[in-house]
Amino acid sequence: MQLGWKVTSSALTLFFALFAYHAAKLPLFDELGPGPGLFPLVMGAAGLVLSVILFLQVRSGSIDLPDEGAALAPNARMRLLSVIILLGVAALMLEPLGYTIAALIMVPIVLVALGARSVIAIALVSLALSVGVFHVFYHWLGVALPVGLFGI
């Protein structure tokens, strides 16, 4: 079991290192403030640090690894497959419906597929990720997200 975690954390380390490397090639700042490379660089660096910490914890044995059977449960595979399919559907819905409506439809479905049961939590997260994220990106950051047929 430890070998799988070591390989995975090593692969994540390599991925985040490459991610940060390519992000560093983009401009970090421009005349308006943060450039297109700043956020990916910060995220790549954070992922790199966390994946190295994970590798070191697994190697030293200071972390309790989950049971082998838990990762191989048929229910877990079905959830993973359903989330992948739902995210593909969301990507197809993004242009015709726009970000807000596509997220408002898909986020609750994905949350239920992942096992969320609280209706209030699902509603709040769905609203925050659809309307809230759209307004943050569109109005505060000036990033145009797809608005779709309905102009929302």
Short description:
By secondary structure, the protein is mainly α. It contains 6 helices and 2 strands; from the N terminus they run H-E-E-H-H-H-H-H.
Strand content: under 5%
The strands making up the biggest β-sheet line up spatially as 1-2
Task: Compute the number of helices.
Answer: 6
Cα radius of gyration in angstroms: 19 Å
Structural class: mainly alpha
> For the residues shown, what is the average pLDDT?
89
Shape: flat
Please count the beta strands (DSSP E, at least 2 residues each).
2
Unreliable segments (pLDDT under 50, ≥5 consecutive)?
A: none
Biggest sheet statistics = 2 strands, antiparallel
Kindly report how far apart the N and C termini lie.
48 Å
Query: What order do the helices and strands follow?
Result: HEEHHHHH
Helix content: over 70%
Question: What can you see in these coordinates?
Answer:
The protein is mainly α and 152 residues long. It is 73% helix and 3% strand. The protein contains six helices and two strands; from the N terminus they run αββααααα. The longest helix is centred in the middle third of the chain and has 24 residues, at 74-97. The protein starts with a helix and ends in a 12-residue tail after the last helix.
What characteristics describe this protein?
two-stranded antiparallel ribbon, 73% helix, flat, 152 residues, mainly alpha
Structural topology:
Blueprint: H1 2-24, E1 29-30, E2 33-34, H2 38-60, H3 68-71, H4 74-97, H5 99-113, H6 119-140
Antiparallel strand pairs: 1-2
Helix pairs in contact: 1-2, 4-5, 5-6
